[in-house]
Amino acid sequence: MASNRKSETLLTKANRVLVGGVNSPVRAFAAVGGVPPFIAKGKGATLTDADGNHYIDYVGGYGPMILGHAHERVMTAITKAVHKGASFGAPTESEVKLAEAVAEAMPAIEAVRLVSSGTEAVMTALRLARGVTGRAKIVKTVGGYHGHADAMLVSAGSGALTLGVPSSPGVPAGAAADTVLVPYNDLSAAAAAMEQFAGQIAGMIVEPVAGNMGVVLPGEGYLQGLRELCDAHGAMLIFDEVMTGFRLAYGGAQQVYGVRPDITTLGKILGGGMPVGAVGGRRTLMNHLAPVGPVYQAGTLSGNPIAMAAGLATLAELQAEGFYESLEQASAQLAQGLLDAARAAGLADRVCLNRAASMMTLFFTPGPVRDHAAATAADPAAFATYFHAMLDAGVYLPPSQYEAFFLSAAHTQDDIHRTIDAAQHAMGLVAKTT
Ligand SMILES: *Cc1c(COP(=O)(O)O)cnc(C)c1O
User: Each residue of 78-95: pLDDT tens digit?
Assistant: First the structure.
């Protein structure tokens, strides 16, 4: 294996001053073991670590980097904005432009509130749903990730009842008690929850394509069914499109599946690598937020001009003719190559590859994976072996089986072929050792 001496030294230093050496837990390699490479720079689909090792990147910053790293036009836009000042706490034209772009892109959005992260967008969406309906409870899917607000750090309680319990110390039981858990892709469970708590459900939040239990696609009619359920019960349907927005298509999952949520949350790609989130919906609904309405929400750095510039430059690139078509082609090719590699290694009946456009997950389980229970049946040892073999071969994957990996427009044919070759070798190791 190539040297990772500098990353090791950096990790030792980091562990002294950063909790676990990181600023977000999945980066710590807890699920796979070993030393995370400290990234020095990225260009296109290539990352370079502190020791000078190169990797083909499939983490994509956990979603935002659909154009690849250090994209020329995005860098130029950021540089231009920096020279005009970093933050004003006053309205700027760039916020109007990004809001216009979002409203134009997303079928269910007329007006938005811009924030600085996906977590913040979700917090705002939940408060809006509760403020508008005057109800407290939120329905959430098991394994759905919506950032780290208290009400979302909840797992299913024991027994038949679907009431949530805190999944992290520090989350008050009260915050968790208003979250009702249902399995993903289970329309009748969602219907039962709505019946059981009739008149108390403010809304249901769902990743229209799940990406944070690994990629899990919605079954036929699931999203439409949720739309009808919410309508029948006077509840808000919240699509958390922080990952899927501008990823599945320019108009997100709501465009692909033709289902209009009441409230949409966005982030990741919207900021082009800078901290941006958004919550949007019909203008009449959004007008419940301050300063027009009584539902309070604010942010010192919201609509930050540098972040706006990065987002605007990114969205402009995504509108190029054929952008999503060529990304789809490359993604289909990579997925097929990975499945062929699994077959060649004799693992065809031990893996399940879920893909929605350029986001995918290779589960080490026969599948099908349609919910969190099926996802967590995947073999962690097989994944750790696969992950480290890929890393050694210069392919940088998310260090957990329950993450999506992403293709960007910067991945070349050569990158894809090298990745498939590496996977062939890695799966051979998995077949031999686990
Ligand atoms: C990443 C993500 C979030 C959280 O966004 P942050 O910017 O990390 O706070 C919320 N929801 C979904 C679906 C996500 O993928």
Answer: 999 999 999 999 999 999
Placement of tokens 């009842």 in the chain: 161
Instruction: Return the structure tokens found at 96.
Output: 């109007």
Q: Which of 124, 268, 302, 406 for a ligand 1 pocket mutation test, highest count of atoms within 8 Å of Cβ? A: 268
CA dihedral 369, 375, 381, 384 (to 10 degrees): 90
Q: How far is the CA of 266 from the centre of ligand 1 (A)?
A: 8
Of residues 226, 233, 238, 219, the one with CA closest to residue 151? 238
User: In terms of residues, how long is the chain?
Assistant: 434
* Residue 296 is among the residues annotated as catalytic for this protein: no
- Catalytic (active site) residue 268: yes
Say what the pTM is: 0.97
Residues with CB under 6 Å of ligand 1 are: 117-119, 122, 145-147, 207, 211-212, 240, 242-243, 267, 277
Q: Which atom of ligand 1 is nearest to the CA of 268?
A: 7
Q: Report which secondary-structure segment, H or E, holds 401.
A: none
Q: Is 240 a catalytic residue?
A: yes
Q: How far apart are CA 174 and CA 154, in angstroms?
A: 11
User: Which mutation among 123, 145, 302, 406 tests ligand 1's pocket best, with the greatest number of atoms within 8 A of CB?
Assistant: 145
Region of 372 (left: φ > 0; alpha: ψ -120 to 50; beta: rest) is alpha
In this structure, what token pair is assigned to residue 212? 């944070």
The string of pLDDT tens digits covering residues 120-165 is 999 999 999 999 999 999 999 999 999 999 999 998 766 555 678 8
Round to whole Å and give the CA distance between 382 and 342: 12
- The DSSP symbol for 210 reads B
CA nearest neighbour of 337 among 418, 434, 408:
418
What is the pairing mode between strands 154-156 and 164-166?
A: antiparallel
